[in-house]
Design a protein that fits this description.
about 350 residues, alpha/beta, Rossmann fold, 7-stranded parallel beta sheet, two-stranded parallel sheet
């Protein structure tokens, strides 16, 4: 390193074992990354693990250890969050709100800027919430809105990063944990999706995990703060009809025999389908159906999300074709991981 070259900042990363956190960790090879976690993070170059609890004051550390950690850290990247729709409200609030408040207190103590990962779905304020059973997306969204309010009022130098649904790596499709969109598209490949409660023209907004990580990595490297970045497909996001076409084409290329699902309205589900077919299912199957209904409700919107990540230096926006290719890669990986086809067929 030359005399004029500054050392790479040391980063505190929360949620290192999650989908976004793992992708961020893979992008930070020149940094020392301290992962605050209960679980073992994905191994990375120059990675240090600190066992802590985001929901407790001082992360559950003694005062001396907390101060020592604060003295080491130059930048905080906060990815940890409850993202499931069936997690109870108290647990969701504890991590998403109280955890964020504790991260803010740490950033203030460390005099470090914060990269806060939220969600683009905070914009879905017209979400109808009736009829999802155990799936309560409004609990998750409310917690993320309250967390954002705390971040913006904190006085800490901060960027807010708002991705839409995060899928796997744009090239390999690999991901640490399959998400709700994988489950829906996977049901299409398995031919267990006879209906889809969506308008065919609804945009299915998703972004690959490496794109989100690129945005965060560039914000860390440039040291900029004070921005709100919508990492979304926006107007390039494919429609539900196009997603079904891609899924059918992939499934048939893999030797599967998926049928075209019928698009139905949420009103039809509530009036006709749920009373006759869904209420009689075992609890686990009802829960999966409710989760699917909640996920599709998030996509039933007229206006596309804003998409502003193209303003980050060095990050090129994904085109509609890029997003379609990333979706296909994710579903190929899903098909292989779930052993729907032989690996040789997936590779082809």
């Amino acid at each position: 390193m030359s005399e004029n070259q500054k050392p790479a900042p040391t980063i505190l990363l929360t949620g290192a074992s999650g989908v976004v956190g793992q992708a961020v960790l893979a992008r930070m090879t020149e940094h020392t990354v301290v992962c605050l976690t209960h679980n073992t993070p994905v191994p990375g170059h120059r990675t240090v693990r600190v066992r802590g609890d985001l929901t407790r004051p001082f992360f559950g550390l003694d005062r001396s250890s907390y101060q020592e950690l604060a003295d080491r850290i130059d930048v905080v990247v906060h990815c940890a969050a409850v993202t499931g729709f069936s997690i109870d409200a108290e647990q969701t609030h504890e991590l998403n709100v109280r955890g964020t408040e504790n991260v803010l207190a740490f950033a203030r103590q460390a005099q470090a800027p914060l990269q806060h990962v939220s969600t683009a779905f905070v914009a879905r304020r017209d979400l109808a919430v009736a009829g999802y059973g155990s799936a309560r997306p409004e609990v998750y969204l409310d917690s993320k809105r309250v967390a954002e309010q705390a971040v913006l009022a904190s006085g800490v130098p901060v960027n807010i990063v708002r991705p839409s649904v995060v899928i796997g790596n744009s090239v390999t499709g690999r991901i640490s944990q399959f998400q709700g969109l994988h489950t829906i598209a996977g049901a299409l490949l398995k031919n267990t999706l006879p209906m889809l409660p969506l308008e065919p023209a609804s945009r299915i907004d998703f972004v690959p995990q490496d794109l989100v990580a690129d945005v965060i990595a560039h914000l860390v490297r440039t040291g900029t703060t004070g921005g709100e970045y919508w990492v979304t497909g926006g107007r390039a996001a494919p429609t539900a009809g196009r997603i079904v076409e891609l899924g059918l084409a992939l499934g048939r290329s893999l030797g599967l025999s998926p049928d075209t699902p019928r698009f139905v309205s949420h009103d039809m589900v509530d009036r006709l389908i749920r009373p006759v077919f869904i209420d009689a299912l075992p609890r686990a199957q009802r829960r999966r159906f409710d989760d699917m209904l909640a996920m599709t409700a998030l996509f039933n919107a007229v206006e596309p999300f804003p998409s502003t990540y193209g303003h980050v230096p060095g990050v090129t926006p994904f085109s509609a074709q890029n997003l379609e290719d990333a979706f296909t890669a994710s579903m190929r990986h899903y098909a292989q991981a779930k052993r729907l086809v032989r690996p040789s067929e997936v590779a082809a």
